[in-house]
Amino acid sequence: MKKISSLFLVSLFLLVISVASSSAYSVGSGRSVDVSAPLTDNFYAVGGEVNIDQPVTGDAVIAGGIVNIQADVSGDVLILGGKVNIYANVGDSVRVIGGTVSISGNVKKDVVVSAGTLEIARNSTVGGSVLVTGGIITIDGNVSEDVLGRASFFKLKGWVNGNVDVTADDVINLSGSAKIKGDFRYYSRNPALIPSGVVGGKTERRGDGSGPYREIILGFFSMGYVVIKLLTYISLLLVGLLLFLFVPHEVMKISEMMRKNFWKHLGLGFLVFTSGAAFSLIAAITIVGIPLSLIVAACLAIGLYVTPIVIGLFLGNVILKHKPRSNAKTYGVMALGMFAYTLVCMIPLLGAIVSSALLLAGFGSFVRRQYELGMIVRGKK
């Protein structure tokens, strides 16, 4: 059975690699990642600095210290970064969590941002709504729908064809060049100075600082986001089915290890992941180390991909408070737990914290079990 388990894990590894190599996406990582040739698929990148200098026909999903988008992206743009500059046009929506965010291109749909500062430059257009939380917010471009936000300082210099609903801790500044065709609803410590003719609809000052939080949070989730989450859940169910057909004992064993020593395996998962990711990035700097870097990165990716299945069984047992006796019922418990995990991942901020802890604990349990299997095989030799 151990040989079958090992063979199946190797087969699963090769399957994931083959699927990844044939799927429509491009991946980059390192200190500096550049798109220097046109891409006809999705682009995913992690780096100190990420530059898109050629068109991307698809989505761009990026995590980086500095992110510069200087060529058009036809799909969605999702960024986690320190300094983010979007100079080009985006064919779908922009969703950013960052320090400083500047948009001087045209966005076809919504702009959803949580940042220290946000500036939408003059002559830029947003085809949908702007939903933002931040410190200093300046909108000098044109917005086709609504503006919803919360900030310390909010300044509007451009045109908004819909309504504006904002909460500002300090100052709300409406320029004489601004235009709100709909209603203006706001809260600030002092009444906003509103030049004549700027607001086309009604003006209302709220009596408290409760802002449009629900709308802003929901802005991070589009139908496409929900569909992606659903497809991910279904794909994990299929992988989980394969694991339960071939190695059900291993899945249950790893889940049990996670339950008995959650914090210990969380620490192990964090240590292995961070050291592995750091090694992969450092090795990628040299030409000789690139193959080894890719192997380590692939192993980490596979471990993290399989881990939600273990988390699903762990959460399912926690929810139902009993262990099923048959493999079929165990699979159902896992499916329930994975669905709960998917919902947790969709909760802003809190969901990220809880899901990260679960992921690292499950990953640590997975690594520990692979080490034990390796020692067993080595002892037999």
Tell me the β content: 25-35%
How many helices? The count is: 8
pLDDT averaged residue by residue: 79
Global morphology: elongated
Strand line-up in the sheet with most strands:
1-2-3-4-5-6-8-10-12-14-15
Which residues form runs of ≥5 with pLDDT under 50?
1-25
- Radius of gyration over alpha carbons? 24 Å
Number of domains: 2
**Ends: how far apart?**
16 Å
| Largest β sheet strand count, sense and barrel closure | 11 strands, parallel
Structural class: alpha/beta
User: What series of H and E elements makes up the topology?
Assistant: HEEEEEEEEEEEEEEEHHHHHHH
| Helix content estimate | 40-55%
**Total E-strand runs:** 15
Q: Care to describe what's here?
A:
The chain is an alpha/beta fold. The chain folds into 2 domains: 121 residues, no CATH class; 158 residues, no CATH class. The strands form 2 sheets. It has an 11-stranded parallel sheet. A 4-stranded parallel sheet has the order 7-9-11-13, with no helix packed on it. α3 runs antiparallel to α7. The chain is elongated.
Q: Could you give the topology of this structure?
A:
Blueprint: H1 2-22, E1 25-35, E2 42-52, E3 60-69, E4 77-86, E5 94-103, E6 111-120, E7 125-126, E8 130-139, E9 142-143, E10 147-156, E11 159-160, E12 164-174, E13 179-180, E14 184-187, E15 203-205, H2 213-219, H3 223-246, H4 248-260, H5 262-283, H6 290-320, H7 327-345, H8 350-380
Parallel strand pairs: 1-2, 2-3, 3-4, 4-5, 5-6, 6-8, 7-9, 8-10, 9-11, 10-12, 11-13, 12-14, 14-15
